[in-house]
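Hey, weird one. I pasted the Secreted protein/lipoprotein sequence into the form twice and got a warning about non-standard characters only the second time. First submission, copied straight from the form history:
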Amino acid sequence: MPSRLLLAVALLTLTACTPAPAPTPPPQPTPRWTLEEQTAVTAATTQYAKSRAAYAAALQHPTTATRATLEAAGMSGSWLDSAVEHADYFRTHKIRRTGASKILSTDPLWVSLSDPTPAVVLKTCLDDSPVTEHDPAEKTPFTTTRHRLVEARLLHLPTGWSLTAESPSPDTAQPPPPGHPTC
């Protein structure tokens, strides 16, 4: 009998001293984009910021804005045409703009590197509150506190990434509640 008791005590001691198996780590999320796609997103996002800055400068100084300057800043397609039209309108109507829309966030919606012309579409939240327009025909300047979502399409052309279009996002951007400056 003592040998059975001794065996039981030994077994319990060994069981109690055996460490519990390590918990299985949670699965790592699969990256949304391949390394090549992420590189394209990063380059396109950088170009988007440059193109937006050039657009703001064109509307702040419409008398010196030219199509060639905007093209050199990485604009093309309907976005370039629209930027030139806006600058011409501001110049013709002597509208003065101060401030620039701020890019609050960008999120790539899709990336296509297999097309003949690689493309990236960014869902972007813009804050227009820093913008004020002074129209001589109006008594008070125009300002807004609006945040808006846009989808920016960039193509990789022989000259590099280029902003070709910007359109309202299908997601409706409502003015944020006080204290929440996000889209």
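That's the output from the first submission. The warning seems to come from a hidden character in my clipboard, not from the data itself. DSSP finds four helices and seven strands in the chain.
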